Amino acid sequence: MSKCPRLEIELSKIRHNTKTLVKLCNKHGIDLAGVTKVFCAIPEVAQVMVENGVKILADSRIENLKKVKNINCPKMLLRLPMISQVHEVVKYADISLNSEIKTIEKLSEEALKLGKVHNIILMLDLGDLREGVWADINNVEEIVEKILKLKGVKLIGIGTNLTCYGGVIPSKENLGKLQEIAEKISKKFDIELKIISGGNSSSIHLVQKNEMPMRINNLRLGESIVLGRETAYGNIIENTYQDAFKLVAEVIELKEKPSVPIGEIGMDAFGNKPTFEDKGIRKRAILAIGRQDVNPDNLIPVDEKIEILGASSDHLIVDVTDSEKKYKVGDEIIFNLEYGGLLQLATSEYVYKNIK
Q1: Interatomic CA distance for residues 168 and 158, integer angstroms
Q2: In which region does residue 187 sit, left (phi positive, over 0), alpha (psi from -120 to 50) or beta (all else)?
Q3: E strands of 206-288, at which residues?
Q4: 180 and 57 in a common domain
Q5: Rounded to an integer, what is the distance from CA 165 to the centroid of its chain?
Q6: Are residues 137 and 184 located together in one domain of the fold?
Q7: Residue 127's pLDDT is what?
Q8: Are 306 and 213 found together in one domain?
Q9: 20 to 30 Å CA-CA from 326: which of 31, 121, 216, 294?
Q10: With 0-12 CB in 10 A as exposed, 13-18 as middle and 19+ as buried, what is 351?
């Protein structure tokens, strides 16, 4: 009997999605950095991405970049480096995204100690209010001038991040500003910026509509490859799979019970006061997985007649009354995943990973 709970990973679907996204973007002169953080850089998955056209592997955590160090391609650190971690950054990342000159100076010092040159992409904030130098040309030129004086680092490009914090949608206008600043920097300092990185999976809609500014030549894609969705509007990308990753959980109790608890209602295990709809007696299954592993809001039962009722730390409670399948204790129930759910399940050491 297979171990539960488990994350089922179908490499053939990752391969297909990677090829689809690479073909779409390459047609517009855009290379891909494959973002591995949502599946915690499982090497077998990352390898499939590289074998099918991804040029760079990118992750927010050095711990994940270590996992893929033997895969033959450049590695990119997505989250701004911590000064306390500059040795590991220079050792395990060929490229890092940066916005603070003090950090870049420390990276330069460490790279010189290790006899390396570390590549820098300078991040610009185009209004989403997460990381980046505010996209005013004077601000940008000032920090570029300082970077160019450092010997241990090389400025290879500029980039931006949109949607992740402020929800700002990538557009011809804001990414056009990134392109414009890149051109001004190249001209003023007489340098070649090899990478102009126009964001993440939320930028795919511009590629699909042929509205991406022409000098944008890199996107950092995770969800669009892994789950087949663009993230500006949440639309499914044509000719991709959404179920390359699935959760399988085992039924450990199956009983008919009232749909409303009996007694005074206080706080649940997470400090919330729950509310309930009285539907009478219902058949309820308890599964051996809980909020320590995944937020139940990020799970989508493959059996559409199943309703997720809620979860405690270790138990997921579902209503199987209307299902056509007659579930029994020991049966497995399968779920498709939202991005946040996959991220949590991949991170949980209590969820087995089954690669096929």
Answers
A1: 19
A2: alpha
A3: 218-221, 245-258, 281-287
A4: yes
A5: 13
A6: yes
A7: 94
A8: no
A9: 294
A10: buried
**Beta strand pairing call for 153-160 and 195-197:** parallel
Separation CA 226–CA 337 (nearest Å): 11
Rg (CA), the chain: 23
Segment 24-46 mean pLDDT: 98
Measured between alpha carbons, how far is 135 from 184 in angstroms, rounded to an integer? 12
Residues 351 and 307 in one domain: yes
pLDDT at 245: 98
- Residue 344, H or E segment: helix 339-347
For the question of residue 328 being annotated catalytic, the response is no
Same structural domain, 217 and 253:
no
H or E element: which one contains 308? Answer: strand 307-311
Judge whether 231 lies within some domain. no
Each residue's pLDDT tens digit, 279-320: 899 999 999 999 999 999 999 999 999 999 999 999 999 999
Q: Which is nearest to 93 in space by CA: 60, 122, 123, 49?
A: 60
Q: Which of 19, 23, 27, 37 is catalytic?
A: 37
User: Residue 350's domain spans which residues?
Assistant: 245-355
Q: What is the pLDDT of residue 113?
A: 98
What local confidence, expressed as pLDDT, does residue 261 receive? 85
Q: Residue 356 and residue 350: Cα distance in Å, rounded?
A: 19
d(CA 189, CA 33): 26
Same domain, 123 and 270: no
CA 12 – CA 349 distance, rounded (Å): 24
Inside any domain, residue 235: no
- Determine how many CB atoms are found less than 10 A away from the CB of residue 320: 21
Are 29 and 71 in the same domain?
yes
Domain of 254, CATH number, reads 2.40.37.10
